[in-house]
Amino acid sequence: MHYDIAVIGGGLTGVAAARLAAERGHKVAHFAPKFAKDYRTSALMMPTVDFMKSSGLLAGDVAFGTPLQKIRIIDATNRLLRAPEALFDSAETGRAAFGYNYANSDLLGAFSKTSAKKRSINAVVSSIKRVGEGYAIETEDGRAVSATMVLGADGKKSRVRDSLGFLSHMTEFGQSALVADIEFERVEPETSVEFHYEDGPFTLVPAGDRKINLVWLDKHEIVAAAARGSQNEFERALEEKSHHLFGHAKALTKAFVFPLSNLSVPCVGKNGAMLVGEAAHAFPPIGAQGLNLGLRDVENFVSAIDELEPGFSVEMAEKASIRYDQQRQHDLRRTGGFVDGLFRSLLSDFVGAQGLRQTGVWALKTISPLRKFAFQFGMGN
Ligand SMILES: Cc1cc2nc3c(=O)[nH]c(=O)nc-3n(C[C@H](O)[C@H](O)[C@H](O)COP(=O)(O)OP(=O)(O)OC[C@H]3O[C@@H](n4cnc5c(N)ncnc54)[C@H](O)[C@@H]3O)c2cc1C
Q: For the FAD-binding domain, which residue ranges apply (predicted)?
């Protein structure tokens, strides 16, 4: 069977892209093997929320997200130079919130709701080869299809990327992220609170009522031990890390640990093949950028295929992939550089870097135009 577009990957970017391509009348094969529930949450900034609504991915419904109105940053390090405490308010951006915090599983449910027809194949792709009519794709369970265009949404270890000769550079960190849902005795409503420690931030993201989503970045052995320990030990550690500001902590879920790495891919579109989401970029979850960037990839993928009639040729697919690559370059470099710089400055023991960070937070606190620029930058504008 031949398709216009084969989308490979059933995570958030793959589901969004396959759905939006099918809604545009293209004949889509979507390779989406079943996977365990994703317990992560995503803070998505207002431009991303706007895209999800205007594209229909959220059907105008943001009710299941929690608004993020304020961001409080507390330097909890014992360093020589410490940054001042800072509170940033979305009112300064002229919007009621910086964005919304969503459970990834809720987003996946919303993205999957479409009446557009596509073929969903619950199987892992084992081989992708360039052939005359585009691409020949085979699955581990022996199914085979061809497609004029292929979209790799198959995550950090992307087979699409590695089989089709997209260069990539991966750096592994000694840090991991621990996520869990926690209920505190009291919370600061709609405020994301970040404690910056020597080995990474400890962030409490509001999730409605007294519930928060914890994202704790630290040395791998520290978070792995916290996840393995008893519930009581875990809860006491959370109270200590949050300086007892919010009272008793109760873990509502078990803790999940994600090793951190940085992945950069210089070219993300060529020969009728394109990469979106973590197949194209990955970095530590600070500044809430990963999925925001992934959904901007999907937005540009949609504009690249919007210009194509269903049944488009291999040549048209090639041109669309090159256009997509050109459109993504600036955003990918800018966002990747921003997160990498921020992550390294947070972990740096070098007094010069600590001074820069301290001056940076102080400048953001006191200089309004700079703060507004930083807000726009962080939101992906
Ligand atoms: C702790 C943590 C917190 C985060 N918080 C935020 C946040 O607040 N805001 C934000 O914007 N981002 C955040 N992110 C980043 C965000 O979670 C990711 O960018 C996003 O989930 C990536 O989605 P994806 O669809 O690109 O990849 P994935 O979710 O990895 O999906 C890839 C899919 O491809 C499938 N696949 C793989 N190989 C094959 C194959 N050969 N054949 C078929 N299918 C295949 C896999 O089964 C998987 O389902 C966070 C990340 C972490 C680790």
A: 3-307
Return d(Cα 98, Cα 89) in angstroms, integer. 8
pLDDT digits (tens, 9 = 90+) for 78-102: 765 566 677 888 888 888 899 999 9
What distance in Å separates the CA atoms of residue 355 and residue 359, rounded to the nearest whole number? 6
Backbone phi, psi, residue 370, to 5°: -65, -40
Strands 169-184 vs 256-264: parallel, antiparallel or unpaired: antiparallel
264-303 confidence digits (pLDDT tens): 999 999 999 999 999 999 988 887 789 999 999 999 999 9
Q: How far is the CA of 263 from the centre of ligand 1 (A)?
A: 13
Query: Element (H or E) spanning 353, and its range?
Result: helix 351-366
**Per-residue confidence (pLDDT) for residue 37, from 0 to 100:** 87
The amino acid that residue 210 corresponds to is: R
66-103+174-260+350-378: CATH, from 3.60.130.10, 3.30.9.10, 3.55.50.30, 3.30.300.30: 3.30.9.10
Rounded to the nearest angstrom, the distance between the alpha carbon of 279 and the centre of ligand 1 is 9
- What torsion, rounded to 10 degrees, do the Cα atoms 211, 217, 223, 224 define? 110
- Tokens read off for 42: 């995503």
3-state secondary structure of 41: strand
Distance (angstroms) between ligand 1 centre and the Cα of 251 equals 24
If one residue of 111, 179, 214, 291 were mutated to test the ligand 1 pocket, choosing by the most ligand atoms within 8 A of its CB, it would be 291
- pLDDT of residue 124 exceeding 60, the answer is yes
User: Hey, do 2-38+115-170+261-347 and 66-103+174-260+350-378 end up sharing a CATH topology, with the first three levels equal?
Assistant: no
Residues with Cβ < 8 Å from 57, sequence gap 6 or more? 16, 19, 20, 51, 110, 111
Tokens found for residue 159: 């087979």
Residue that is written with structure tokens 């040729």 in the block: 313
* CB-based pocket (< 6 A), ligand 1: 8-14, 31, 33, 35, 40, 42-44, 124-125, 153-155, 159, 177, 179, 215, 258, 277-278, 285, 288-292, 294
Domain boundaries, the chain: 2-38+115-170+261-347, 66-103+174-260+350-378
Q: Return the CATH number of the domain spanning residue range 2-38+115-170+261-347.
A: 3.50.50.60
